[in-house]
């Protein structure tokens, strides 16, 4: 695999836009499809589009309870018409006799010959007749055949990650099974002799491995299968073995920790020994030492070990890469603009993705506040936040100015 062509910034770091475009270009859509029942399709990415073979609705139907009539029979302000038939939903009505009305209910087919429905609130039933106290316009309260979907329409496009509404739409056109892309398989490991699993007794110098659970949940939320390679000891050989196993068993290898340049950081040299390190060090905060490369032909992404850095860099880089692997077209981030409820007086050389909270004031104006800590070790800040404020390189912000905001609702799906 040849090196990616990234343009370094003045301080030797890769610009964010360059990095994300290079990652997007390097992500190869997965091959392999399977057919699943609608009940099992939630979260998969659709491989073949869903095309309707029917019109929806399949006939003209009543939008409400009332009486189906010919508008020409109701030209006066008040009319009395005999009721010739009753049409509940699911019925197959006969033609409407001239000069009569049909009692009809919401969703029921319009009898042939009827061209309007009068709501029951302006009608007065009496024995086998109805008095209509309103002028009636042709087409009133009728939903037309094919008004929602016409036969031949693509109702769910290929590349769509299937949500509940997509499954309901597929069912509405009679499709029982869907052809979907197989789930990406991601091998995950954490580096660090200081790591313990939750439930183990905490000893001096040790910390619990929160990154495993954060990363696993992030991957599962994207519809990935996860291979847990565990905690890898801080040696070059152990790191190489984990990388080789991950490359054998998964479509992507993702590691947290060990990507910097300390004596105990072995991921970078291990990747270089087994394959290629194609990109390293991005001009962002937090998460500068993000690494991308290939091991035995499998793509590799490494994040810093600090928990906030992992969380942020996953959303900025790992998520788009996986979306591209899934064949999704919506892989680029889409920041929104709101008002800053903070001052940012000192510009930074790197782009800041700061933990932030969006709230709306009484006037409905969205205002973004930021967490007081910039430390990438304060994991509680990402539960306080509901998104990331994006502060460009060299930017000074004043309260009330526009600031870009990436909501977690966008980033965690």
The side-by-side strand order for the widest beta sheet comes to 7-4-6-5-9-8
| CATH domain class of the largest domain | Alpha Beta
| CATH architecture descriptor name of the largest domain | 3-Layer(aba) Sandwich
Average of pLDDT: 92
| Secondary structural class | alpha/beta
Taken together, the total number of domains comes to: 4
Task: Note the gap between the termini.
Answer: 30 Å
* DSSP summary, beta strand count: 26
Give the DSSP E fraction (strand runs of 2 or more residues): 25-35%
For the biggest sheet, the summary is: 6 strands, mixed
Q: Tell the overall outline.
A: elongated
Fourth-level CATH superfamily of the largest domain: MoaB/Mog-like domain
Q: Count of DSSP helices?
A: 8
Assign the CATH topology of the largest domain. Molybdenum Cofactor Biosythetic Enzyme, Chain A
Would you mind describing this structure in some detail?
The protein has 8 helices and 26 strands. It is an alpha/beta fold and 413 residues long. The protein has 4 domains: 160 residues, Molybdenum Cofactor Biosythetic Enzyme, Chain A (3-Layer(aba) Sandwich); 53 residues, Molybdopterin biosynthesis moea protein, domain 2 (Alpha-Beta Complex); 83 residues, Molybdopterin biosynthesis moea protein, domain 3 (Molybdopterin biosynthesis moeA protein, domain 3, Beta Complex), CATH 2.170.190; 76 residues, Beta-clip. The strands form 7 sheets. Strands 7-4-6-5-9-8 form a 6-stranded mixed beta sheet, with no helix packed on it. A 6-stranded mixed beta sheet has the order 16-13-17-21-20-18, with helices on both faces. Helix 3 packs parallel to helix 6.
């Amino acid at each position: 695999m040849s090196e990616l062509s990234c343009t370094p910034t003045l301080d030797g770091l890769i610009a964010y836009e360059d990095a994300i475009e290079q990652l997007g270009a390097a992500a190869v859509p997965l091959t392999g499809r399977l057919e699943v029942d609608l009940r099992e399709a939630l979260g998969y990415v659709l491989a073949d589009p869903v095309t309707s073979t029917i019109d929806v609705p399949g006939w003209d139907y009543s939008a409400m309870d009332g009486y189906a009539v010919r508008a020409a029979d109701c030209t006066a302000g008040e009319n009395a018409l005999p009721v010739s038939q009753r049409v509940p939903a699911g019925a197959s009505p006969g033609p409407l006799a001239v000069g009569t009305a049909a009692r009809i209910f919401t969703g029921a087919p319009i009898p042939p010959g009827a061209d309007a429905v009068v709501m029951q609130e302006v009608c007065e039933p009496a024995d086998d007749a109805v008095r209509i106290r309103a002028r009636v316009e042709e087409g009133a309260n009728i939903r037309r055949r094919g008004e929602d979907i016409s036969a031949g329409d693509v109702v769910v496009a290929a590349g769509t990650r299937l949500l509940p509404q997509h499954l309901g739409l597929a069912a509405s056109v009679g499709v029982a099974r869907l052809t979907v892309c197989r789930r990406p398989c991601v091998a995950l490991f954490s580096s660090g002799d200081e790591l313990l699993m939750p439930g183990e007794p905490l000893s001096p110098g040790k910390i619990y491995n929160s990154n495993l659970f954060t990363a696993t949940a992030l991957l599962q939320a994207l519809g990935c299968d996860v291979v847990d390679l565990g905690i890898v000891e801080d040696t070059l050989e152990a790191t190489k073995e984990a990388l080789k196993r991950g490359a054998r068993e998964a479509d992507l290898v993702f590691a947290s920790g060990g990507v910097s340049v300390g004596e105990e950081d072995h991921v970078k040299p291990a990747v270089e020994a087994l394959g290629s390190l194609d990109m390293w060090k991005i001009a962002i905060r937090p998460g500068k030492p993000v690494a991308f490369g290939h091991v035995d032909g499998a793509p590799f992404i490494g994040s810093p070990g600090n928990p906030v850095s992992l969380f942020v860099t996953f959303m900025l880089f790992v998520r788009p890469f996986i979306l591209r692997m899934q064949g999704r077209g919506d892989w680029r981030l889409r920041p929104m603009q709101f008002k800053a409820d903070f001052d940012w007086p000192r510009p930074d050389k790197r782009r800041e993705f700061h933990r932030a909270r969006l709230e709306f004031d009484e006037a409905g104006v969205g205002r973004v506040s930021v967490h007081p800590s910039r430390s990438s070790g304060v994991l509680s800040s990402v539960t306080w936040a509901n998104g990331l404020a994006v502060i460009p390189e060299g930017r000074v912000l004043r309260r009330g100015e526009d600031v870009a905001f990436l909501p977690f609702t966008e980033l965690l799906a």
